[in-house]
Design goal:
The chain has 152 residues and is mainly α. Helix content is 78%, strand content 0%. The protein contains 5 helices and no strands. It is flat. About 7% of the residues have low confidence.
């Protein structure tokens, strides 16, 4: 009977060791991919481009054009946010005040904590220190119709 328990113990140990090794390998791969994505000039544009490329099966030329469009739109978005930031924060504050008015004391304390957590990223987004991504390279005058035409 003791050999039976030893066999179960060995099988369990192998299972646990496999799970630990698998989790460690997954974390290592995820960290490597994250470093690769964040290494570029505009990580948000890279992430959005990668998602669209995967979902839509974009070719290389399409990926470049999609990335240029995303970077350009983010530049425009930052300009609009910089211009309208105080108005957006005013809307945020008025909405928070209306919500606080209907809450009891316990709920207000929790709401204030949640609102502070969520307002921080909004203030960062609207701050003057927000980096504006570089302008995209000028598009080709006559872009090739297919990727095969792009390569000599």
């Amino acid at each position: 009977m003791t050999t039976s328990w030893r066999a179960y113990l060995v099988i369990f140990a192998v299972f646990v060791l496999g799970a630990v090794c698998g989790a460690g390998a997954s974390l290592a791969v995820a960290a490597r991919v994250q470093r690769h994505i964040l290494a570029g000039s505009d990580p948000v544009a890279r992430i959005a481009t990668l998602r669209l490329a995967r979902e839509l099966r974009l070719d290389r030329h399409q990926r470049e054009q999609v990335r240029e469009a995303i970077v350009e739109s983010r530049t425009e978005l930052h300009a609009v946010l910089a211009k309208n930031g105080p108005e957006l924060l005013g809307i945020w504050d008025r909405t928070a005040a209306r919500i606080r008015a209907v809450l009891d004391e316990r709920q207000r304390e929790r709401f204030d904590a949640l609102a502070a957590e969520r307002r921080g990223p909004l203030e960062h987004l609207l701050s003057a220190e927000q980096p504006v991504p570089p302008a995209p390279p000028t598009p080709l005058e006559n872009p090739p119709a297919t990727p095969a035409e792009a390569e000599p």
